[in-house]
């Protein structure tokens, strides 16, 4: 695996190293030792999938407040997503900055998101599935979010929104809300 640093301390784009032969390829996508060597979380406690039937579906921006903040791995297993993270770690040199990453079933990339980030994505294809590996248990009392189009961030989503949950649409602006 190749751990490609992002602009954020502790956040990595992970590319598998493909071993290709006449059958196709084999690639490792998780190794506890390699994650530990980078100082990353090494014990995922939950895995979830998100299926999105329509291109342009938007989910986000979500995070969990302390004491239940979560690091996570995000990988697109079918279709494609425009994945966005925002650094909400007070004192970080990239506090309140955002970055986007294209994760697709074809590029096999995984995004490691440390604790203290908001996360959201927009689907770039119909029938898109996203796999999450979380390093903390979901805690509904700590779940929070803010609007996908909050002017504090000026996120440039690539497509018009086709579907969004009422809950995501009703999130407030960031307005100093911190995890």
How would you characterize this protein structure?
This protein is mostly beta strands and 179 residues long. The chain has one domain (44-170): Jelly Rolls (Sandwich). Helix content is 6%, strand content 40%. The chain has two helices and 13 strands. It has helices at residues 32-37, 166-170, and strands at 2-5, 12-15, 19-21, 24-26, 46-52, 58-64, 72-78, 80-87, 98-104, 110-113, 117-123, 128-134, 143-145. The strands form three sheets. It has a six-stranded antiparallel sheet with strand order 1-2-10-7-12-5, with no helix packed on it. Strand 1 and strand 2 form a beta hairpin. The protein starts with a strand and ends in a 9-residue tail after the last helix.
H/E element order: EEEEHEEEEEEEEEH
Domains, number: 1
Major sheet attributes: 6 strands, antiparallel
Distance between the termini: 31 Å
Q: What fold name goes in the CATH topology slot?
A: Jelly Rolls
Outline: globular
Please identify, by name, the CATH architecture: Sandwich
Query: What count of helical segments does DSSP give?
Result: 2
Helical residues, percent: under 10%
**β-sheet strand percentage:** 35-45%
* Spatial strand arrangement across the major sheet: 1-2-10-7-12-5
* Global Rg: 16 Å
- The average pLDDT score comes to 95
